[in-house]
Amino acid sequence: MQFFRFKGLVFLVFLFIGHSSLAQEAEKLSLLEPAPNFHPKRFWVSLGTGASLYTGAVIGLNEIWYADFPRSSFQLFNDWGEWQDMDKAGHFFTTYMESNWIFGGARWVGLDRRKAMWTAVGMASLFQATIEVMDGFSEKWGFSIPDITFNTAGALAFVGQEMLWQEQRIIFKVSSYRPPYPDDPIISVDGKSVTSLRQRANSLYGGGAAASFLKDYNAQTLWASVNVHAFLHRKESKFPKWLNLAVGYGAENMYGGFDNRWEEDGASYVLDTDLYPRYRQFYLSLDIDLTRIKTKNRFLKTLFSAINIIKIPAPTLEINTLGEFKFHAIFF
Asked: Global pTM?
């Protein structure tokens, strides 16, 4: 049922915004070149691709994420403060990223900037809201108003810049570097079982590189990458157009949602807060806006746009809530 609602909604949206521009361009476009006017063939390709991705994602999430947990009646869940709010930063980033990518797809179809903007944030918000509704019917979680709030903030971050400047001067990015989890023994509360932080991290976040990048809150850093040149208001400025100043947020020593207590194979574990304090990290670094690197190659432009969500490794200053100040020669 959700699929048909989604497909019908997208169809009506595109039908409305494409009303009188259904003529095929006289000139032949290259595959990666945005269409100057509404392009019917590209519309159907985008509609089919988007509907398939949405449906596949919903089915996949249901089977992989929700199927192993009992369902419940719709409920609310206040997860503010969980994972040091790294998941909230993730909700913001994800909705912003989806809006940015869908905007590019809508421009490829031939929509003007304003129509592409509202299509992008509408589709991104729909997908994120679907996940929240699925959470709402799960006994383990629930519908999170803080999550929806940060989803909306991510969409507004995209819309606001598009309306103000017709470009994204502040790009939200992600980086991930898995910390070296120790194998030192962690004794259970009753003293009968032993585990390690590496074992706990693998169980909680997964052991592979992809799982770590997507799920490991200790490894992730979320960034606001600001294009300095765009704010100088001087075309003759010699400040590199592609060089950004990035502000990041991360957290460390998280082995549970709200605290470092967990159950494993029937045993209970509690970490010493003095040895493993949970803390927040704030970063200042340099970055590169790949979309501002000049190239006439359409493939490179598309590639740069797609991977521009990844923060480039660079020298970085860190200050954290433990009161520490650190310099990283290279931080990712």
From this structure: 0.86
